[in-house]
Amino acid sequence: MSLTRDDKHFYEAHYIDLAQGKQPGITTCIGVLDKPALVGWAKRETAIAALRNWGTLQSMIAQYPVNDEALATHPAVSFLKGVPGYQRDAAADIGTRVHAVAEAMQRGEDPIIEDDVAPFADAYVRDFLTRYQPTFHPLYTECMVYHSGQDGTVLPYGGTMDVICRIKDPVLDAEETWLIDFKTSKSGVYPETGLQLAAGRYAEFIGRPGDPKRYPVPKVDRCGVVWIRPEGAHLIEYRVSPQEFQAFTACRLLWHWVHERAQEVKAA
After folding, report:
1. Residue 228, CA atoms < 13 Å, CB-side half-sphere
2. Which of 39, 100, 112, 205 has its CA 20 to 30 A from that of 140?
3. Which parts of the chain fold into alpha helices (H)?
4. Predicted pLDDT of residue 86
5. Which span out of 59-63, 77-81, 95-99, 148-152 was modeled with the highest average pLDDT?
6. C-alpha span between 213 and 54 (Å, rounded)
7. 143-181 burial string, b = 16+ CB within 10 Å, else e?
């Protein structure tokens, strides 16, 4: 009995009174949202790559003369089409490694930090750990959450939250519980992260692999993102309310329709 996650970030609850099969993760559900910023980003990265690799593209064109009938499969076209995917994967890779370093630090470990991750780690230590002096608990670091939907509010989903920690508010002179997500994207943070935080905040319980116990999600006072870049890290608060959770439940329902209902809705 436990909560598990597979390599595609689908979650499955294995409990005597709760067995629902694999359910999509929070970020998977939010993926149904249209993201026009990504389109602009892909266009910009492709244009920049074309300028930076102008000589290479000219060599490709000289070696393989342009043929309108086969233009879509020309090596130069294939090269440029692959640019956004390469940049996205590279960004995801460094983001994953920064997350791993931050998680290790929260557990009191001394992780090996690679050269390209070091500026991010320095910013995280200087601008978050040192400035805010957060208090961590191992149960709430990289914790898996789950909602069975049995209360009728939402279809079942799972997710992994970066950290729930305690931070002292210097104005109130009191500690507050924060639900925090780490972001490393060059372009900043986005409103839809509020839906991700809401799904974690209003999840039903925290589960662990190989552990039959279901742990309650702590009462969260504030939600936010620690945006980590080489030049600095910033704690950005998100005003997460039941309204954001309602919007997330709509994403979960739409994901269900797109992936499980769309092919059946039209009569044969």
Report:
1. 28
2. 112
3. 26-30, 36-52, 54-63, 75-81, 83-106, 118-124, 130-132, 193-201, 242-256
4. 46
5. 148-152
6. 58
7. bbbbbbbeeeebbbbbbebbbbbbbeeeeeeeeebbbbb
Q: Are 5 and 28 in contact (CB under 8 A)?
A: no
C-beta of residue 119 within 8 angstroms of C-beta of residue 127: no
108-147 residue pLDDT tens: 888 888 888 899 999 999 999 999 999 999 899 999 999 9
CA–CA distances in Å: residue 19 to residues 141, 225, 226: 25, 32, 34
DSSP single-letter state for residue 33: S
Instruction: Give the C-alpha separation, 73 to 170, whole Å.
Output: 60
Which residue shows structure tokens 């978050």? Answer: 128
12 pLDDT above the threshold of 50: yes
Q: Pairing between strand 141-147 and 205-208?
A: antiparallel
What are residue 164's DSSP bridge partners? 179
Q: Which residue has the tokens 């702590």?
A: 218
The residues near 251 (Cβ < 8 Å, ≥ 6 apart) are 29, 30, 32, 33, 195
DSSP code of residue 174: E
pLDDT digit string, tens, across residues 208-230: 999 999 999 999 999 999 999 99
Q: Has residue 6 got a pLDDT over 50?
A: yes
Average pLDDT value over all residues in the chain: 85
Task: Transcribe 88-132 into DSSP letters.
Answer: HHHHHHHHHHHHHHHHHHHTT------TTTHHHHHHHIIIIIHHH
Q: What is the four-CA torsion angle of 257, 259, 261, 266, rounded to 10 degrees?
A: 110
Sheet holding 23-24, edge to edge: 2-5, 10-14, 23-24
Domain architecture of the chain: domains with CATH: 24-32+94-261 (3.90.320)
